[in-house]
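Running this now, will post back.
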Amino acid sequence: VGEGSYGRVYKAKKKSNRKNTRNGVHGDAQEQFIALKVFKAPFSADKASEGYCPQPPPESQMEMAMSMMLSKQASPSTPIVKALGFHFHFSRPVNGYSQYSNNTQGEAAMSMDFCHGGTLLDFRKGMDPSMRMAEREALLFVRPIAMALQFCHDRNVLHLDVKPGNILLRQPGCLGLGLVLPEGAHYAESAPGRGTRCYIAPEADISGIYSTSSDVWSLGAVLLEALTGHIPPYGCRADPSAFGLLMGTHWRRLSRVPAWTRLSKPVRGLIKWMLCPDPQMRIHLEELLHHPWLLQ
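Update: finished.
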């Protein structure tokens, strides 16, 4: 169902061990769908190490650790896609690690919730050719995604790749949402240079500076695109010396986005606050969640 730099995601069936005996049926075990991410980089299992513990590559280890940490601390209502477990498949199907030579390799995978509704991008494509959402529809995804980001930020995890393709719908046509972590997880203290160019915050793109405000910008870009069909227009991305000019031109460029004037005043104000080029002045998630438009 999807592929990235580090792995492929498959739709898989998970069978329970219980038989369905209702109405006298004694047959196949009940099935449910899960998402299975198989990492491209192989893991190694050193026979000499205690317990013969599989060792996935560092980027896979980070993603697994962050996904499981967040999933264990999440409540059933937390709008994130939860990790269910890890799976290791050795290159040679023999019984017991003791029969392997040192540094045996295999594949690592992570099972996750499966969202049957596809992505927010799929949802928008199915609406109309302009891919523009009504404000009442956009309202349904902004708040839960902001809550998911705040949940991550409270645990010192940055997302850094908020975009329509990483916002999943629980059911088709229903904005019951979950935010999926991008490939590799990101500590707030040490974040690599990642993100999708159309949605990355200017301070991250220009200076490589990341913070919780970077995710707020990305969510603002998703909101703007959902309502107008256009991403934030700003220039001077590659020249750090031009960052000051960015502040002066940004608002004028934003006001010329097609369909901008058709947005309500509260929504225009919120988007301008989310897309403030100065990360210190950008709205915080706590303020965002208490914005009058989101409290409707």
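The two ends are 35 Å apart (CA to CA). More later if anyone needs it.
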